[in-house]
């Protein structure tokens, strides 16, 4: 079977062969437990972990002691939010986040609401960015944490993290960010950005799955989180569990490659993305979702009106993309991120996310354009809504039989 | 999710796509679903002598299973009498296309579209609309 063109790099990225090469010895001859202090096997593994910690720290501008390895960004989000809530409960119980966050943040907050937390879910503007005045107004003396993602996974918009952290700090709260989509793609510096806690993951930046990290600030202020996993007291007592040495080595190598190649790669990717987006946006009734100034270089989210996203993906079987339509889910609810931008359900159902990556070529983008245009035109020929639109019928005036 | 071969076949080669003259008294039109729900089907039948359906056309906004369900429905409708058409059950469509549980609503919509088209035809020709049982959602 011919492999489709992979344009779903916001879901996961392929492993860079250079990362794999760095990892391989740690599966075999360097198999030691990094916590074994009494023999060479342990020391070699520990060296690998220490080196990876340096590579990670260098990418985000922190010190090695501030990097806590986890099983991925979801665990890091849980550790940060639950850990802060438990550690700072004497100070307050209020957390502020946004409706467009990843489920790992939203569901963690919902869980804490059952345990006495008060959570404010900020809405977003039409372009996907939060309103800073609204954030400021939501701050209270009980606010202990503001958790706003760096770059959005569906539409790629980048939140004004510097401004957000300044507001959080002004009111004595900590600032946490889920930077899973941003780290390794754009410059992220925890000091310049005023970040106190930051979650990210290896498999979104050409590293392996099952490993990620939480940055926890140690100075100005010294941030503490209660551990969510009890055991041997690994990772400065914040995350027990034998370290996933090959995974961590892979995360380190992935961070190093991103740091060295990010600048040129971001230019290359935004060039390809802009070509894809501007060409497809020339199609009739197509709409680009989210802010187009403040966003990640490798994401485009486009709605093709009068065509349903899942049906469209089926017609584009030569492309691996994703859709905000959720015809398969039991709820049939389209993307909550797109809906929170104020998009109508039918436009949300008509959306396709293209996520470009390190291995995306210009030839692939040209093919993706051709495949999309053909599929959209084909499905519009089948679409009663398109026919009605062409006849000038106002679809909003029709009484649809909801089912 | 993987689609069955029959869904893929109907999706790639949809039968009877098109539009009949909705103002003709021989044509019944059913428009069901809603854009907000991610699927809308329009199914039309043309009825000849002896209540036999001589032509059927569809257009569908929706996922592959919705398109396949309506394509299959038009195929089945041609040559049937109105009474025979009324007996098409959504579960027949589920079975024929091997639809998974999350796609059963697509077949329900196709059954609704058939009945709605028949009722449109009946009302146009001075007959009472048939009271439809609520199909099993």
UniProtKB/TrEMBL annotation, chain B:
One of its GO terms (biological process) is iron-sulfur cluster assembly. InterPro entries: ISCU, NIF_FeS_clus_asmbl_NifU_N. Belongs to the NifU family. One of its GO terms (molecular function) is iron-sulfur cluster binding. This is Iron-sulfur cluster assembly scaffold protein IscU. The keyword Oxidoreductase does not apply. It comes from the Bacteria. Residues 2-125 form the NIF system FeS cluster assembly NifU N-terminal domain. Keywords: Iron, Metal-binding.
């Amino acid at each position: 079977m011919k492999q489709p063109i992979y344009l779903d790099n916001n879901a996961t990225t392929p492993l860079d062969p250079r990362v794999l090469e760095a990892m391989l010895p740690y599966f075999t001859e360097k198999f030691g437990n990094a916590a074994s202090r009494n023999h060479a096997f342990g020391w070699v593994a520990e060296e690998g972990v220490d080196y990876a910690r340096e590579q990670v720290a260098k990418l985000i501008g922190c010190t090695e002691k501030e990097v806590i390895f986890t099983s991925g960004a979801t665990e890091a989000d849980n550790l940060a939010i639950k850990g802060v809530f438990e550690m700072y409960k004497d100070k307050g119980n209020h957390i502020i986040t946004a409706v467009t966050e990843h489920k790992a943040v939203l569901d963690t907050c919902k869980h804490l609401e059952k345990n006495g937390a008060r959570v404010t879910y900020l809405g977003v503007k039409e372009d996907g960015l939060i309103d800073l005045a609204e954030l400021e107004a939501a701050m209270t003396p009980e606010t202990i944490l503001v958790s706003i993602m760096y770059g959005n996974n569906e539409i790629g918009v980048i939140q004004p993290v510097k401004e957000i952290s300044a507001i959080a700090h002004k009111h004595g709260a900590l600032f946490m960010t889920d930077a899973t989509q941003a780290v390794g793609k754009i410059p992220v510096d925890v000091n310049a950005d005023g970040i106190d806690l930051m979650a990210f993951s290896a498999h979104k930046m050409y590293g392996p799955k099952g490993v990620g990290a939480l940055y926890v600030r140690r100075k100005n202020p010294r941030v503490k989180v209660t551990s969510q996993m009890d055991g041997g007291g690994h990772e400065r007592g914040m995350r027990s569990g034998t370290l996933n040495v090959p995974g961590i080595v892979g995360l380190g190598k992935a961070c190093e490659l991103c740091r060295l190649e990010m600048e040129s790669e971001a230019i290359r990717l935004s060039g390809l993305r802009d070509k894809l987006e501007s060409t497809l946006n020339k199609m009739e009734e197509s709409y680009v979702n989210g802010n187009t100034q403040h966003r990640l270089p490798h994401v485009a989210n486009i709605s093709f009106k009068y065509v349903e996203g899942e049906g469209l993906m089926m017609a584009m079987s030569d492309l691996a993309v994703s859709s905000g339509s959720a015809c398969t889910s039991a709820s049939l609810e389209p993307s909550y991120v797109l809906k929170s931008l104020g998009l109508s359900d039918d436009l949300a159902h008509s959306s396709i996310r293209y996520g470009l990556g390190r291995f995306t070529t210009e030839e692939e983008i040209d093919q993706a354009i051709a495949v999309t245009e053909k599929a959209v035109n084909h499905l519009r020929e089948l679409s009663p809504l398109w026919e009605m639109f062409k006849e000038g019928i106002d679809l909003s005036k029709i009484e649809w039989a909801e089912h | 999710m993987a689609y069955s071969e029959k869904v893929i076949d109907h999706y790639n080669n949809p039968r009877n796509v098109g539009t009949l003259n909705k103002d003709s008294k021989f044509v019944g039109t059913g428009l069901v679903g809603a854009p907000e729900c991610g699927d809308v089907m329009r199914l039309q039948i043309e009825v000849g002598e002896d209540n036999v359906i001589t032509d059927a056309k569809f257009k569908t906004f929706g996922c592959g299973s919705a398109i396949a369900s309506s394509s299959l429905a038009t195929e089945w409708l041609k040559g049937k009498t109105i009474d025979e058409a009324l007996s098409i059950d959504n579960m027949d469509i589920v079975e024929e296309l091997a639809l998974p549980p999350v796609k059963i609503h697509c077949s329900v919509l196709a059954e609704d579209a058939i009945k709605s088209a028949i009722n449109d035809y009946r009302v146009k020709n001075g007959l009472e609309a048939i009271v439809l049982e609520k199909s099993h959602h």
